Amino acid sequence: MWRDRSVIGWDVGGAHVKACLLVGGTVRDVVQWPCPLWMGLDHLDAALASALSRWPEMGRMAHAVTMTGEMADVFEHREQGVLRIAERWAGLPGTAVAFYAGERGWCAADAVPERWADIASANWLATARMTARCVGDGVLVDIGSTTTDLIPLRRETVAAHGRTDAARLASGELVYQGVVRTPLCALTRRILFRDELYSVMNEFFATTADVYRLTGELDAAHDLHPTADNGAKDALGTRRRLARMVGMDAREASPQEWLCFARAWRAHQTVEISSHLCRVASRAAAPEGAALISAGCGGFLVEELAERIGRPCLSFAKDVARLDPTAGVDLARWAQVCAPSVAVATLFDEEHR
Asked: How much is the pTM?
């Protein structure tokens, strides 16, 4: 049914919709749209409309869909979320749609109600499976806007201890921290500023985007959501939000001091992720020298994490994804950020040729 067709891989999250266009097994285009699903399904409809504008012929393509958006609190429970999201794709005119059900393979729209639990939050498994086939042994480290996946790979298979979000939170393979949307008060209870230790204000005053915006590491193209105060994303607005975390105003310290403060928050986050990474790698008994494979908009942290534990560092975009060789750096950059959409498109293409 899908033989010789182009494939669009979809990763439908609670904050973004990511999509990859695969033609002849090669990644030709990758894109991400903001989609605050907790604010209503109309945001999902808007993302689909943007996709149709970008790819007018998508009605003649195959669609491979994975998701995490069923966790959004607009839904009464996860089952309802899976069904409602699946309805959007099943209702697209003229499209052939398959939903990724993890270890149970692919299912058509009419099988979603009985297999919703396998479809829910399986996007990490698609990325891990594709990566395992390419690198054999290692740990996939996908640091996104909201979460971090730490997935051990052994002998070209996924060696994860957990499969559901709940089990992965227990195992340390899912860390609910990212480089854009995480409230800073979730990173630590106390923080050092100007040689004094402060308790942190447990308020939604700032997010990790403020940290990495000030350090210059967050690509503006990945900084898609409003700030905590709906204010400006310039340096002054960013410093103002960070200052509030310790009950201050931006004018009470120099720009250099606020940069040092941002780096202190960065250090707390990398320590937290590193502790889970060591736990995951140790339990999986990953071979000595097995690489970390970076993915996600927070991939810039992975090289540091690899250095901490003495591992080499590979990149999903450069070392795993099959990119159009004539494409520029933008395609690689978006393939890195949208790895699950690339993976689900590629796996579908491989398994249906």
From this structure: 0.94
